[in-house]
Amino acid sequence: MSLDSPPPPAGPPPPTGPQVGADEWVARQAHRREYLPSWLGRAQRQAERIGWWPRLALAGLAAAALPLVGLGGFQLQVGIDALVIALLAVGLNITVGWTGLLDLGYVAFFGFGAYGFALVSSGQVGTNGIHLPSYLSIPLVMIAAAVLGLLVGLPSRRLVGDYLAIVTLFFGEAFVEFTNNVAPNTLGGPNGIVGIDPISIFGHQITTNTGYYLLLVVVLVVTMAVLRLLEFSRTGRAWRAVREDPLAAGSMTIPVDRVKLMAFAFGAAVAALAGTIFAAQQISVFPTDFDTPILILIYAGLILGGAGSIAGAATGALVIMVIYDGLLRSPTDSGYLFYGLILLTLVVKLRPWRRLGLVLGATVALGFAVHAIAAAVSARAVAGSPTSTGWIGTAMHDWVIVPANAAVAGNWGFVALVCLLIALVQVSSRTRTILLPPTLYLAAFVWETRLSVEPAVTRQLMIGAILIVMMNARPQGLLGQRRVEAIT
Amino acid sequence: MGFFFQELVNGITTGALYSLVALGFSMVYGVLKLLNFAHGDLYMVGAYIGFFVIQWFGGPSSLSIAVPLLLLIMFVLAGVVVGGLGVAIERFAYRPLRDAPRIAPLITAIGISFFLENAALLLFGAQFRVYNTADFISLSSGITIGSVTIDSVQIMVLVLGLLLTVGLRELVNRTKLGKQMRAVAADREAAEMMGINVNFTIAATFFLGSALAGVAGVMGGLLFNQVTPTIGFIVGLKAFTAAVVGGIGSLPGAMLGGLLIGVAESMITGYISSTYTNLFVFALLIVVMLVRPSGLLGQAQLQKV
Amino acid sequence: MKSSMIVAAAAAGALAVAGCASSSTSSTAGGATKSCVASTGMEGPLTGPVAVLGQEQLHFAQLAVLRDNLANHTKITIVQGDTQLNPAQATTVTQQFTSNSKIVAVVGPAGSQEVEAVGPLMARAGLAFISGSATAAALTTGKYPTFFRTVSKDSVQGPQDANYIINNLHPKALMIVDDQEAYSTGLVSAMMPIFQAAGIKVDHESVSQKLTDFSSLVAKVTPSTTVVVLPWQVASNAQQFGRNLAQQHKKAVIFGTDGLFSPGTFSINGSYVSSFGPDITALPADKAIAAAALAKFGKFGTFGPPVFAAQHVIDEAIASVCKSGQTPSRANVLAAIKKTNEATTILGQPIKFTSSGDVVNGKFFLFKIDSTGKYNLIPG
After folding, report:
1. For residue B305, is it within any domain?
2. Residues 241-300 of C with CB under 8 A from B
3. Whole-model pTM?
4. Closest to C322 measured CA to CA, from C128, C26, C32
């Protein structure tokens, strides 16, 4: 029997996952928000001190100044595509982020806006067409879209959650079917509507990509400003209340049904605005422009940026589109992104520094060793040359094996790489350090032999991988906040 | 009259296929409340596995083993491999997001869907891989009642679908694992406190759901003959629809939803017009949802205060 | 830790700077004293639901460049762009190509809608683009001065096929199914008036290109429907349709347009297929190419050979520009393409372009498939 006093009790274990009494609303009111760790958090607090409105103005000015710095035609187009998706994400944020309604048919409002504008501002309807000026057609289309949003939102009075999601999905699919098959003489069928009038602001017609880019920047900034005002209005608070607990909101005299309808209507109006600008910039609309892949991009942008935050929605969409539509379309940039992301993950995740150095050194050494052995064993094993160009290719030439029969070896390597990656997640820390150098070498091997040969397929693979990794790393999104969700 | 029954048979067969995929989808949803958009792509992987098994044994016109044995190997292999793939995906991508808001795993599932589809494109190429079922299961081996023909492949799909559904129901209602699944689906934290190994149960659920999708993939290959990397997308969407229309989390509901969609498509194509098939099916399903807001066989959701 | 983040950022920045610096000063491969170096773009649906078409086109374009580089001692490279048959993506890819000053000509895009979307852009950049599969008649009305195509158009194929059916197959009732794509609906609108004028009962159906099961549709084929016209792009779907026909014991004959021309994929006994060119595996002159394509890429259909022809036209244009001592540029390659006059090509026919971009004297051949799956040319 020991007479020693018992050791002091250990502190509570570090928290994992959502905690009782630490949810977003309380924390926000108590100004105890969650910040990113270390210097990123300090940067966040500094940014907050600047205030939301100055930040928006700065971002808008920076974006508008980009063409002056000299953007090529392709980069302007990527910028335009990214801004359209950002506008859509900001609108979707109203329904999904603020009100918590899963709207899987959102892209139909986008299409409605585009087709609406195409019908009233082109030569499609009637002998000479209706050529309404932009200051009439755009508000008209937005109001019509809001009405459509109200109609689509009507089922939300009876359906909740995923059941509502299904019904909205039907509307989304129905729109594509409708524009493709119904009334081909008016709607154009699969051939769509071509020859849409450009948008004219104060008598000045916008016909260049630079013009549309600047227009989109202005529209996005104004929309974000309006939504910010809405966010802190009674309506915005009502939306957030309905998201958190519809029953309690209803008990607090918030008209839940009407609030949900308003969310749909506002979201639809923003989407239609994006649609009109899209139609004018493309000068043509086709049914396939508004299919599920666009919906996926909008959702990816919204959730990666942080659902519930306007700035998050816009940022996430811009980041995703710049990567997907811009960087990944160029094989050299894809290579930089591939190797760069791997190195970045290692640097961020692998601690201490000695371990990181060990792994990198081992990878390099392993590479040279394997290359030497393979060259000695069989000339065919190193007959090919790495497909990366520039300095990466020359660096890789004596390091990575590229066999003569690259495709087959690359395929097997790809399968092995995926298996290794899955295994890496499961094993203990020491085994992981041992497995890392072969995995890294295998990754370089697969890239040089197979992935960079097929840039189109690699682009899709990489966006999929980026989505998976980014959601795992930060489930609440870049600028989102961790929320506690009561799942019944 | 014969026309009606022919369309009915076609519809029930396709519906049985959708039901199988919807069952797996519903199982995963029940346990994790996760909309697994990658489920359709597991169907696609199963179809490819079936194709390669046929090629391994000599190709559709010169098989080296008996057809029943071939079918058995195809189904078992597809089930096991796709089940394993499902478990790996869960471990790798969904487990870290178990406590995140429900919308986060949606994007992960989309990422996995992208990845699976394009990995198949990379590894297997874009060309349509064809089962050529008619070469080893003769087209004339079936039942013909009047003017209605039921192919032997269709019979097999129906029978196997029924067996699997009944087997799954027995598993969920009678076995210990089934009880664990129901417990985890009802309340994960309470189940954990009751001593249930939640990780294992969820992994087992994923295994079973994905295996079902894999088997459905082989069946789809036998029925429709063509395998490409993107066949999973439409089937996944229809399975999602079937699971929700039937009532989320209800296994008989998922089956019913799948059959409803299959028959509706068939009947509308036959009697109204093939151009507007999808539109009418959507309209029908919206009406169904509005009449029964919790799905056909779903339970009304309690709102806890 | 603050310092670690700074080091990480510095490392990443150094990588990026090094990469950008060296890529901008990357030297072209030296060696040959006066080598003809140029890049061409290739736009097509390389991923997505119709990847099978785009990948086939890409493979044939790559094959053409491989052979032409060897034959002409040029160094032409292909820059790929994935459009997924979507006009908005085609616009982005085209912007990428027009901004890339090294690209002097483009093969593609594959769909007629995409041509409508990118035509003005290409015209503004003076970039020639040759499509191997955009067949809408409206594309060559002079709207797109830099557009060419190596296949003939719907307004030729539609009436030719319709008249053949009426005069040779004498159907009382027929079913025509479109796949809700522009190619298909264009052909249907060209054929329907001719059928209706001949007094044939026409059942016009429409299915999505993504559909893989046609049993419900086939159940609608009545005993008096002797011909089913399938102006589809995906041959494999037509093969499945044929299987469903056999399964339900329907006696209708399938008549397909050039999208179905795929020996090896579509092989229903007794079917008819029209095509802008003969089966290249049957042409002795193309034996080497066909064998190389089969060995490297497997079975191919109807989308590869016209793109081979298009790429070959561009390669020859670039080679002739170099031979005359100039550096290839968009303007002189466009001029050289306009002057193309090849007596024989992979398609077994000469290629010469009209002023609006069509192939001169483009006509369609008709084939009947026998029980071994072989495509037999119907004379006349």
Report:
1. no
2. 243, 246-249, 265, 297-299
3. 0.90
4. C32
Six-digit token string for C126: 């003076």
| Count of pairs with CB atoms under 8 A, one residue in B, one in C | 92
Looking up tokens 């918030």 gives A254
Look at chain B and report how many structural domains it folds into: 1
Q: What is the DSSP string of A137-165?
A: HHHHHHHHHHHHHHHHHGGGGT--HHHHH
- Chain A residues inside the 8 Å CB shell of C98: 73-74
Here the ipTM equals: 0.91
Which residues of chain A are in CATH 1.10.3470 domains?
A: 55-329
Share of chain B above pLDDT 90, in %: 44
Q: Which domain holds residue B63?
A: 2-291
Annotation: CATH topology of A55-329: ABC transporter involved in vitamin B12 uptake, BtuC (1.10.3470)
CA proximity to B205, closest of B166, B242, B168, B170 = B168
CATH topology for C36-152+283-352? Rossmann fold (3.40.50)
| Phi, psi (deg, nearest 5) at residue C32 | -65, 140
Tokens, residue C201: 């009962």
Asked whether residue B296 is assigned to any structural domain, the reply reads no
Q: What is the pLDDT of residue B19?
A: 92
User: CA distances (Å), B248 to each of A161, A166, B242, B259, in order?
Assistant: 11, 11, 9, 15
CA A150 to CA C306: how far, in whole Å? 50
User: Which token pair is B17?
Assistant: 């296929």
- State the Cα–Cα distance between residues C83 and A323, nearest whole angstrom: 16
* Interval A60-81: pLDDT, tens: 999 999 888 878 889 999 999 9
What average pLDDT does range A271-278 have in this prediction? 96
| Residue in C166, C179, C174 with CA at minimum distance from that of residue C229 | C174
Whether B147 shows a pLDDT value over 80: the answer reads: no
Name the closest residue on chain B to residue C48, using Cα atoms.
B230
Q: Is the dihedral of CA B47, B52, B57, B62 positive or negative?
A: positive
Best residue in C42, C43, C91 for a mutation probing chain A (most A CBs within 10 Å):
C91
Beta pairing, strands C103-107 & C128-131: parallel
Q: Is residue B301 part of a domain?
A: no
